[in-house]
Amino acid sequence: MNNFSYNQPTDIQEAIQQGEKPDSAYIAGGTNLIDLMKYNVAQADALIDINHLSGQQDIARKEDGGVRMSAFTTNGVTAYHPLIKENYPLLSRAILAGASGQIRNMATNGGNLLQRTRCYYFYDINTPCNKREPGTGCSALGGYTRMMAILGATHEPHDQACIAVFPSDMCVALAALDTVVNVEGPDGERSIPFEDFHRLPGDKPQLDNNLRKGEIITGLDLPTQGFAQNYSYLKLRDRNSYAFAMVSVATGLELEGDSIKEARIALGGVAHKPWRVKESEDFLKGKTATPENFAAAAEIIIEGAVGYKDNAFKINLAKRAIVRNGLMALNPKETQLPGAVPS
Amino acid sequence: MLTENATLLPKTQRNFDPQKVTLTVNGQPRELNILPWVSLLDALREYIGLTGTKKGCDHGQCGACTVLCDGRRILSCLTLAVMKEGAEITTIEGIASEEGSLHPLQKAFIEHDAFQCGYCTPGQICSALGMMQETTPGSRAEVADLMSGNLCRCGANSNILDAVMEVMNDE
């Protein structure tokens, strides 16, 4: 870890002025940043502690019926908050599927969006990595690819390639829920729809998201529809706890009798950002919630998937997981049990 | 062992200034004069001398460094001490009663043979205490899930769960 100076501004404008400087970094929970700095993957000359900015709320109902979550509230407080548990249980489940109790007590909502990939090669500064050092190549291609992406990756040219996966669980649920990200920066405030926040690697794999230098995420807005009656988060991984997803699925359904009035399906563990295909959700409108219909939706979602030597299994796994999760969403009271083995 | 009064290099050779941080540790106020990159784990072990909290991986993966901060379980290896000004920290040394009698969790760990080498144990106990403040688990499977951030390479996990379940059911 390099040596750095540390500052604790209380005024957001002051924080932003410091954050605009090159080689400065914001720190909130620190659960990813400090880890990356210990590995020398991340460096900063100045750390700006943004946990003490005045005027930040916690989690509250908005006038339009939605809920605003502070970016500075921890993942743990958020997952157990009554407003979230009752109205957005999909989000609560997704948060609790990730990390550990200790990490959830430290990690913040804003920070969760900004976590970096856990690609082994990104983490190893002795290997070429286009994300860490643009233009040097992608060591994952031709390397051990078990945790890598099957959708939306960049394969060529080699000096832009990146097949890394975005590891957040919380963000898969946030994507399914059509969350809006509020940020404040040198150019003022703006709101970013969730689907526009994270990027695919494209020709700039070093950019994970569309935040500009100096911008601070201040809040996350959840719309009124939380799919609290029919939802499920399914996380498939090498252990039943404390591991990143090979494939995860967040599903929300609004049912009218037997038929689906609205569906949301987002995938984690398969791409550089949470993967949601609106055509699959439009397809399910008006259809019954059957394995056949979920399987047809899965074909739409997984179309174009590319597997490698060690992760090609994710393609069929994802299709089956979408079907299973659709059925699980029909009975959350019995399927969304904490600690349960995915059935 | 570095103490709060450790001598630092002359100012001309340092690019960064140490900062004063006051932490309440196990009920005692402790004033530290430390550089910003010192982890809370190193501050507790090296500067204050409380070596009960262990450094297992130093990367937030094993849970051996778990302490309670303002009542919540956190990983001290991923925490910068300077960020915890004013916080109340409880380490394994602060779990027993003032008179020295063991906490029910400590007694349960002994009764249920919930440790072999003992290295994960301070973190397990602090984590279990923190977990019980966060929520009321509804099943053994949920307790196992909530304790999954504490690794035990000796394999005492099922006994750890027995000990935690016993204390939970007694409360």
List the topology elements:
The complex is a heterodimer of chains A (343) and B (171).
Chain A: E1 5-7, H1 12-20, E2 24-27, H2 33-38, E3 46-49, E4 59-61, E5 67-70, H3 75-80, H4 82-87, H5 89-96, H6 101-106, H7 109-114, H8 120-123, H9 170-176, E6 180-185, E7 188-193, E8 216-222, E9 231-236, E10 247-256, E11 259-268, E12 275-276, H10 278-284, H11 291-302, H12 313-328, H13 332-335
Parallel strand pairs in A: 1-3, 2-3
Antiparallel strand pairs in A: 4-5, 5-8, 6-7, 6-8, 9-10, 10-11, 11-12
Chain B: E1 19-25, E2 28-34, H1 40-47, E3 66-69, E4 72-75, E5 88-90, H2 104-111, H3 121-134, H4 140-146, H5 157-170
Parallel strand pairs in B: 1-5
Antiparallel strand pairs in B: 1-2, 3-4, 3-5
Q: What would your notes on this structure say?
A:
The complex is a heterodimer of chains A (343) and B (171). Chain A is an alpha+beta fold. Among the domains of chain A are: 5-51, Uridine Diphospho-n-acetylenolpyruvylglucosamine Reductase, domain 2 (2-Layer Sandwich), CATH 3.30.43.10; 231-333, 2-Layer Sandwich (Enolase-like, domain 1). Helices cover 28% and strands 19% of the residues of chain A. A 5-stranded antiparallel sheet of chain A has the order 4-5-8-6-7. Chain B has 171 residues and is α+β, with helices and mostly antiparallel strands. Chain B has 2 domains: 11-94, Ubiquitin-like (UB roll), CATH 3.10.20; 104-170, [2Fe-2S]-binding domain (DNA polymerase, domain 1, Orthogonal Bundle). Chain B contains 5 helices and 5 strands. Chain B has helices spanning 40-47, 104-111, 121-134, 140-146, 157-170, and strands at residues 19-25, 28-34, 66-69, 72-75, 88-90. In chain B, strands 2-1-5-3-4 form a 5-stranded mixed sheet, sandwiched between helices. At the A-B interface, helix 2 and helix 6 of A face strand 4, helix 3 and helix 4 of B.
